[in-house]
Structures are given as structure tokens and as C-alpha cells.
Design goal:
Number of strands: 18
Radius of gyration: 18 Å
Length: about 270
């Protein structure tokens, strides 16, 4: 099963697999390393696809918009759980967790890395992350990479990052711990623009991707991005984006929003 956190080599480019749904024979993915440059922003990755790989774009009803589909027969799969990690620092960090831990990001596609990117399918690993933070073994990530900021404003991006345990610092090295537990979202039957404030009334699935929150308007906030993980109940967000009408629920997908703000920070 190839899902969020896996990577590919295709057309001499490193691609990052996105999401949980992938049409048979294909994988939804976006460029991660293009012409030797790391692509951190989704809009930049999609711009490359639209300019250089237009033929890959297809509408997928389970997703609700056009996405790049990489043919598996022409790609080399980089499996996070098959990669042997030789560096001592990430090995020590991984040793705190029981069960299978995969490596993703630059640790997966090269032997050089600036931060430790890990992948898990086990939600209990979040408890371990909390314990590591409480014991002071890890610390909050208080540095912001401006190349990663999109959708959120810098202030909100930094505020949320510092509160997460899915991101942090271990022995001076930044880490991101991605926990994935897939959910069937059904089909998109319609969509409309949305602009307004929503309040999280129930954090249904806040630690594993895709994250899911119920709001006071009856809409569900969803995201496959760590930046929207670990949001607390009672949090209000100002969202400018697209409301996807699915056959199962109303989905305010934060990943395709034009703008998301912590509403309290605007007053």
C-alpha cells in the first residue's frame, strides 16, 4: 500500500506521495526535488506540474480536483520501511518507539539530511511523542523556515508549530513525525466557495493524517498536512477556501484553502 509518506523516482525527479486514495496503477504525487532544489510549498510543486507535466493531471472524484497521477509502471518506489538508516542520531530517536517506524524526506531519498522525517501507521506513537516532550528529551520547534509558509500567516504558522509534539527538536536536530491512518472520504459531488469563521467543537482525529475536526457549522475540517494537526477543541479559524460536498460529509479541506488564520490572532 503506497500512501502519504512514500516517495518515488519518476522522470529523474523525486516525488512525494500525497494522501490515501490512488487510482489503480497510479499514485498521486508532487515534485519534492526538482533540478536539485527542494520544493517545500505545495503551490510551487503544482506550478511545476502544470508547466512541465501537464499530461499527468487528471480529475479524481474521490479527491475533488485535478491532481498529478504518476504511472507506477514507470516509477521507482522509495519505501520508508525498507530504508536502512546508518546515521546514529535518527537511529537513537527511532529506538524510543515500539513497532515499525519508516523514514521519509531526505533520509529516504538520500544519505544527507537537515531534519529527521519519520513515518508511522501506529497512533500510539503519539503517546510516546508526548512523553518524550514531557521528559525534556525533545523540545518545541521554535524556528520557522520561511520557504515552508503558505496558507497560514507566519505568526500563526510559528504559534502552531511550537505547540506540536509531532514536530520538534531532538538533540539539536529538527524532526517531523508523520502518523498516517487512512479514512475513506467517499466521492465529491459538488463544491462551493467558503469564506468565514469556524470553531472546532470536536477533535475527531487530530494526531494522525488525515486530521479531522468537526466544526460548529456542521462542516468537517480535514488535512493531510502536519501544520493543521493537534488543533485543540475550541479553536476558531478564519478560512477562505472550498467546501467540498462529499457523499459522506461536508468537507472544508484546509489543504486547498487560499487562507487560514487563527481567528483570535485577528482581533
Amino acid at each position: 500500500m503506497i500512501i502519504e509518506g512514500y516517495m518515488l523516482k519518476y522522470a529523474n525527479i523525486i516525488w512525494a506521495v500525497k494522501g490515501c486514495f490512488h487510482p489503480e496503477g497510479f499514485v498521486v504525487a508532487v515534485p519534492r526535488v526538482y533540478n536539485g532544489k527542494k520544493i517545500k510549498k505545495m503551490n510551487e510543486a503544482l506550478k511545476i506540474v502544470k508547466e512541465k507535466f501537464t499530461s499527468l493531471l487528471r480529475y479524481v472524484p474521490e479527491i475533488g480536483f485535478e491532481v498529478p497521477l504518476i504511472p507506477l509502471k514507470d516509477a521507482i518506489i522509495l519505501d520508508p520501511f525498507s530504508k536502512e538508516v546508518n546515521d546514529e542520531l535518527p537511529r537513537r530517536f527511532i529506538s524510543y518507539f515500539k513497532g515499525k517506524i519508516g523514514v521519509t524526506g531526505s533520509l529516504l531519498y538520500s544519505n544527507k539530511y537537515n531534519d529527521i522525517d519519520l513515518l508511522s501507521f501506529d497512533e500510539s506513537h503519539y503517546i510516546t511523542l508526548k512523553e518524550l516532550r514531557e521528559k525534556g528529551i525533545t523540545a518545541p520547534l521554535n524556528k520557522t523556515n520561511l520557504n515552508e509558509i503558505e496558507i497560514l500567516e507566519e505568526k500563526d504558522f510559528k504559534t502552531l508549530k511550537e505547540k506540536r509534539v509531532l514536530e520538534g527538536v531532538y538533540q539539536g536536530k529538527p524532526y517531523t513525525f508523520k502518523i498516517v491512518r487512512c479514512v475513506d472520504f467517499g466521492y465529491v459531488t459538488d463544491k462551493k466557495e467558503f469564506k468565514g469563521v469556524v470553531k472546532i467543537t470536536k477533535a475527531i482525529k487530530p494526531y494522525s493524517l488525515p486530521v479531522i475536526y468537526l466544526t460548529d457549522l456542521g462542516y468537517y475540517l480535514t488535512s493531510f498536512r502536519i501544520r493543521f494537526a493537534e488543533l485543540k477543541e475550541g479553536t476558531s479559524l478564519y478560512v477562505v477556501g472550498i467546501l467540498l460536498k462529499r457523499d459522506k460529509f461536508l468537507d472544508l479541506d484546509l489543504d486547498i484553502a487560499k487562507e487560514v488564520k487563527l481567528y483570535e490572532s485577528r482581533t
